[in-house]
Design goal:
10 strands, Rossmann fold, globular, two-stranded antiparallel ribbon, alpha/beta
């Protein structure tokens, strides 16, 4: 199975442009690969020079943000089958949407989320990997 994975809020906490804290994704991602599945990183991160936006929410600093995310996987020995797209889709589509049979993304409707409270302040939710793993086992995606 080709599994599309977001990065910020999905495998790490939301701390862009920095890499957030790992939230329990590593063992599950390794299990997915060990069970023969392909991981495709599909993120808004990119390596960018001189970005511009009128929105205060957008980081407008140059950086190697996509490379940083790819290196996060490499440093944890989690192989990526694709980065920003499924390498097999080039033969049948030019769509920029990554193709996969499953998408794990904190923004996906129904994805189980954890809502952290730190020092009494609620932070942005992130994927609850304990519940995701249960789902993957129940669906026989992880044996």
């Amino acid at each position: 199975m080709d599994i599309v994975i977001d990065f910020d809020g999905t495998v790490v906490t939301h701390e862009f442009p920095k890499i957030g804290v790992e939230i329990g994704a590593v063992p599950v991602l390794r299990e997915l690969v060990a069970n023969g599945h392909n991981l495709i990183l599909f993120t808004m991160r990119s390596d960018v020079t001189a970005p511009y936006s009128k929105s205060a929410e957008i980081v407008t600093e140059s950086g190697t943000y996509l490379t940083d995310a790819v290196n996060w996987f490499k440093e944890r020995n989690i192989p990526l089958f694709g980065i920003q797209r499924n390498p097999t889709q080039d033969t049948w589509t030019t769509s920029p949407k990554a193709y996969g049979q499953l998408i794990i993304d904190d923004a996906a409707l129904g994805c189980p989320l954890f809502y952290p409270i730190i020092n009494g302040e609620e932070k942005r939710p992130h994927v609850d990997w304990f519940k995701v793993r249960q789902f993957l086992v129940n669906m026989s995606i992880i044996k």
